[in-house]
Design a protein that fits this description.
homodimer; mainly alpha; Tetracycline Repressor, domain 2; 9 helices; disordered N terminus; DNA-binding
DNA sequence: TGTAATAAAATACAAATGTATTAAAAAGGA
DNA sequence: TCCTTTTTAATACATTTGTATTTTATTACA
């Protein structure tokens, strides 16, 4: 007497959210109107409305999902070489993967930028922005702990500060690459990240 | 037979542009509709239209003006102590002034963030974004040159890279402060900037 | 197969928005 | 004071946008 529920509602919602991402990356979040989103994911406006009562709900979900995916990836278990320069190199690679060095990650970074900026003037989105920020900070902290493990124990507050330094550096490098994604700029980005890691292994 | 021109047209345009800034900082650039701008600066829609033919023209001018003012401030001639730790401290102060550590600068940073993000998907604004970026990069480079002047000459390319590092760090710290402007966060920001300057004076 | 429930699509509609047009007001010289 | 020009205000209008409403199509189960 009930239970039609043919389509996977959650999958549908994610598909719609991804359409929002596409538009946000290519035209800015403010262009993600219901109709534009419907066109982007080949659905009718009615379908979108069936999955999301209001546009606000849709935008929140779209940001929640992107934050959740980023966090999942940052928290993914990893194996690192046990010691020495191998480990440092591995961590540098890890950090590099967060940078928009190819088209796919550039798109992700553009999505991040548009939602983060929107979050500055939208309290609901602000919560997700802080979540994402915390996750990245934690990720940087883990990296710093790994890097400083090899050398004489340092004050934890110092490591925290260096983690925040790293975190901000990554954000800034990301922005710089979005503004100028030239290959020269990409190379400089790589060198800066590697230098940072190298300095950390040497202790300062 | 001509020349009424009572009001200073340029002043008027700047006043309107500043209204755009206010709205961008408080609600996001997409809320800066003609009517909202008119209300913000107590003018009629007709007056705005007299000064700016289209909304696009207004947004471009508003960004051009903000970029121009930032650049002017960055390029302002300064006197620095001649040598040693005094100079380093002065430069740290200089850098700190670019951070959103009070309400006024936080507002400026929010304006910067909204326009910069809009510039990612608006080619016209993109030009101004790159201008501002170059100016900040140059400013950082000057700071790094001052800091490294005291110690053995370094490769210029290394200094350039450190300048880019500093530049990105400042951008990232700015974003972090916009997301979490707590006083604890502000203190951490100050410590990171000072540590950076100090490390530069020591050479690495 | 038929029927109740659900999903999708189409339509409707009010509010907002950019801009063009028109009317009013203001201002400086003759 | 009057007249021409400019500025400001008011109005009009076509689009766009969010959302509500209505229709149509689909699906699972009896």
């Amino acid at each position: 007497m009930e239970m039609p529920k043919v389509v996977d509602e959650e999958k549908r919602r994610e598909r719609i959210a991804e359409a929002v991402w596409n538009i946000a990356a290519e035209q800015g979040l403010d262009h993600a109107t219901i109709r534009a989103v419907a066109a982007e994911c080949d659905l009718s406006v009615g379908s979108i409305q069936h999955s999301f009562r209001t546009q606000e709900e849709l935008k929140c979900f779209a940001m929640e999902l992107v934050v959740q995916r980023v966090i999942t990836r940052l928290n993914a278990p990893r194996e690192l070489p046990n010691h020495g320069s191998d480990k440092a190199a591995a961590i540098a690679e890890l950090l590099m993967e967060t940078m928009p060095l190819d088209a796919e990650r550039e798109k992700e970074a553009r999505i991040w930028a548009s939602f983060s900026t929107a979050a500055l003037t939208d309290e609901k989105l602000g919560a997700y922005s802080r979540q994402m920020n915390d996750a990245l900070e934690w990720f940087c902290l883990e990296c710093m702990r790994e890097l400083s493990a090899s050398r004489d124990s340092e004050e934890d507050s110092d490591i925290r500060l260096e983690a925040m330094h790293l975190h901000c550096l990554l954000d800034g490098l990301t922005i710089a690459l979005l503004i100028d994604p030239s290959s020269k700029h990409r190379q400089e980005t790589e060198r800066i990240v590697r230098n940072f890691v190298e300095q950390c292994t040497r202790g300062v």
